[in-house]
Amino acid sequence: MGAFNIPLKSDGTAITVVIPSDIAIVVNQILDENGEKVLFEENYFKFVFSDKDGTEVECIHDPSGINSKNTAYYQEEDYLRLLVPTTDFVKGWMYCKCFTRVADSDFDDGYWDVCTRKERINLKLIE
User: Fold this and answer.
1) 94 contacts 49 by C-beta, under 8 angstroms
2) Residue-wise over 28-67: b if at least 16 C-beta within 10 A, else e?
């Protein structure tokens, strides 16, 4: 799983959001390293959004629904909606790091966690 990016506007510039607005990001699909679609209804995902100062917001999709946070899963339409409050963020570029996990009893917590690098996304916070 690679990190995702927000599409640029048609004129090639980044999407801007005036803070402290909330952000809703729709994720239609996630592909694995082989280009195969990863199923939302079966897999755990965590997206950690941050600003340039390191303030973070977690969006967690837990397929059991127990530990989900700042997400909404629409099973019938098959997409995830990430809900990112920016109240504590400062102006500048936003960054994202993505996580997934697979059940694996060899690890103490029972999961094998995998994450991407933190990468700048095409979303800029302005005042």
Assistant:
1) yes
2) eebeeeeeeeeebeebbbbbbbbbeeeeebbbbbbeeeee
Q: Which amino acid belongs to residue 30?
A: I
Q: List, for residues 72-117, the tens digit of each pLDDT value.
A: 999 999 999 999 999 999 999 999 999 998 889 999 999 999 998 9
Give the model's pLDDT for residue 4. 63
pTM of the predicted model, to two decimals? 0.89
> DSSP string covering 54-90, please?
--EEEEEE-TTSSS-BSEEEETTTTEEEEEEE-TT--
Taking Cα atoms as reference points, which of 57, 61, 39, 41 lies closest to residue 49?
57
